[in-house]
């Protein structure tokens, strides 16, 4: 074998992307088989008297009526009335109506866990990116000749043992594999071998490329760039001058170049940051100021990770080493930096007059990849869930992500309960 050119290693990898079809709806059908084949909407806010809420997902039969994820529930009900309402309303057609079910995260998590076990049984390296989606590096487990049978084996096993349907894409890199898993949904299985990548990507609309939102898509279309093929044929430096580094990424992805490695890092259970004072301070204003900086950093990290949070908390360490944690749970998952700051300030007010040696901010109860819905969720009130003041702090999962800002700190060890 000849010497490799730098960057060509990615050609040698085999990456699979698995994404369950209409996942929450498929879960509902597991415990209510009568819903199979029916238009089914999973969401909130559709009961009489409710007006606020969004569609989490819709079965493919419901999508045929124009119902889709993140749509306002009122709009979904217009396109697809509830069966039980249609049955008593002579102006509505029962045949053109559907079933609505509320979101039950705990159940979907348990189904997701079963799927994960199967994925891990088929690949040494699995990166879970959301409740129904994961990348697998299967370079060691299969070859291009066998990739289709290999992926079908995973698909069949998920369907047989869990009862939900996965669409799977296989390609030499993550971004192409993701597009491949989406290409023939539902029940899709698409293998794109290295030499077929450019041809496969050419007709893909620019908005289907990772990192292209509606605004970028419009800008590209204004320039006559409508597909990945057009993008791949554009001038790299022109894209860079228009979009900065992101332009370079877009150009690469459109050409099927993506050197990201599938890493098995799981999803963090929480995101937190903390900061110590060189000398314990009794000035609540100073503590608040520090905490708000941490709050901004944590909210920003959540946005970068596409994470929504249901719980916002603080940690306050008072001399000698008492760790006090307070947290507030929200009615639904949000991505709202301003709210984080407000809740942090409210929780801190209790420590008026206390000397503080360290302060921390944490968001937890995370949900990934559903940011579009956050804006539709009303935030109406909150309840306190954690009110500990022992030196044990809160428990957290092994995957919690946190960082300690020791720049001005005392560098004290063993105060890591927040991590
Ligand atoms: P997706 O994989 O994006 O959607 P899906 O599985 O319902 O449908 P398909 O993959 O066949 O296109 O998201 C997985 C789950 O995440 C989805 O079932 C419900 C939830 N979700 C939301 O709650 N809000 C959203 O806006 C989106 C997109 C998903
Ligand atoms: Mg899905």
Automatic annotation (TrEMBL):
The active site is at 133. Its cofactor is Mg(2+). Binds 2 magnesium ions per subunit. Keywords: Cytoplasm, DNA damage, DNA repair, DNA replication, DNA-binding, DNA-directed DNA polymerase, Magnesium, Metal-binding, Mutator protein, Nucleotidyltransferase, Transferase. Residues 380-391 have a biased composition (Low complexity). Belongs to the DNA polymerase type-Y family. This is DNA polymerase IV. The gene is dinB.
């Amino acid at each position: 074998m000849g010497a490799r050119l730098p960057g060509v290693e990615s050609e040698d990898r085999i990456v699979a992307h698995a994404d369950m079809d209409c996942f929450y709806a498929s879960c509902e059908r597991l415990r209510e088989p009568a819903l199979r084949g029916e238009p089914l909407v999973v969401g909130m806010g559709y009961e009489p008297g409710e007006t606020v809420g969004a569609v989490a997902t819709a079965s493919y039969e419901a999508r045929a009526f124009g119902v889709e994820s993140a749509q306002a529930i009122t709009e979904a009900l217009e396109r697809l009335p509830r069966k039980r309402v249609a049955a008593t309303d002579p102006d509505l057609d029962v045949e053109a109506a559907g079933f609505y079910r509320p979101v039950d995260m705990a159940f979907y998590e348990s189904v997701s866990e079963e799927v994960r076990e199967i994925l891990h049984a088929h690949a040494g390296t699995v990166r879970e990116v959301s409740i129904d989606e994961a990348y697998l590096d299967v370079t060691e487990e299969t070859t291009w000749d066998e990739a289709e049978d290999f992926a079908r084996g995973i698909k069949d096993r998920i369907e047989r043992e869990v009862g939900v349907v996965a669409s799977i894409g296989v390609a030499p890199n993550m971004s192409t594999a993701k597009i491949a898993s989406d290409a023939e949904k539902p029940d899709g299985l698409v293998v794109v071998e290295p030499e077929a990548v450019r041809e496969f990507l050419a007709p893909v609309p620019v908005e289907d490329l990772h990192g292209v939102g509606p605004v970028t898509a419009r800008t590209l279309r204004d320039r006559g760039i409508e597909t990945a093929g057009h993008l791949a044929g554009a001038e790299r430096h022109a894209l860079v001058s228009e979009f900065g580094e992101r332009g370079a990424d877009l150009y690469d992805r459109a050409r099927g170049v993506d050197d990201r490695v599938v890493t098995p890092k799981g999803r963090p259970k929480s995101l937190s940051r903390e900061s110590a004072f060189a000398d314990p301070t009794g000035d609540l204003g100073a503590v608040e100021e520090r905490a708000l900086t941490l709050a901004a950093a944590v909210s920003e990290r959540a946005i970068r990770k596409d994470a929504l949070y249901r719980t916002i908390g603080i940690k306050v360490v008072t001399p000698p080493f008492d760790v006090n944690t307070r947290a507030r749970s929200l009615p639904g998952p949000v991505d709202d930096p301003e709210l984080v700051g407000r809740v942090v300030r409210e929780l801190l007010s209790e420590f008026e007059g206390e000397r503080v040696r360290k302060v921390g901010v944490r968001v937890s109860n995370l949900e990934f990849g559903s940011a579009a819905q956050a804006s539709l969720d009303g935030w109406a009130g909150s309840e306190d869930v954690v009110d500990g003041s022992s030196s044990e702090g809160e428990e957290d999962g092994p995957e919690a992500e946190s960082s300690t800002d020791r720049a001005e700190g005392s560098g004290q060890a063993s105060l890591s309960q927040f991590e």
